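Request: Show me your protein:
***
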Amino acid sequence: MESVVIFSIIVPTYNSHNFLENCLKSILSQRIDPFTYEVIIVDDCSTDMTIPLAQTYSNLFHHFHIVKLNENVGPGSARNAGIEHASGEWIVFVDSDDELSPDCLLVLKSIL
C-alpha cells in the first residue's frame, strides 16, 4: 500500500551550512511515518558548503529533495519554488536555522 504524502516541508537555504544540519536532523527526528512527508530543500545560490550537505541528506533519505535556483531571488521566491515542487496535501515552511520539536508533524496531523 502506497503512503500519501501529507506534508511538504520546504526549507529555503542560502549559505546555511553552519546550521542546516541541525534543522534537517530535527526533521528526521519526527515521530511520524517518514513516508507521510517530503522535505524540499531549496537552495538560493549558496556559495558555501550548503549544497554538498543537502546532497548528503538527499542521497541518504528517499524523501529529501533538492531544488537549486539559477539566481539568488530571496527567501520568498525560494519558498514559492518549493511549492511548485511539492506533492503534499499541506505545506510546512521551516527556515534553515529552525529546529522542529519531535512531535511537530504529529501534532499538526492530529488537528487537520
User: Anything to note?
Assistant: The domain at 7-111 is CATH 3.90.550.10 (Spore Coat Polysaccharide Biosynthesis Protein SpsA; Chain A). The chain has one domain: 7-111. The chain has a mean pLDDT of 96. The longest strand covers residues 7-13.
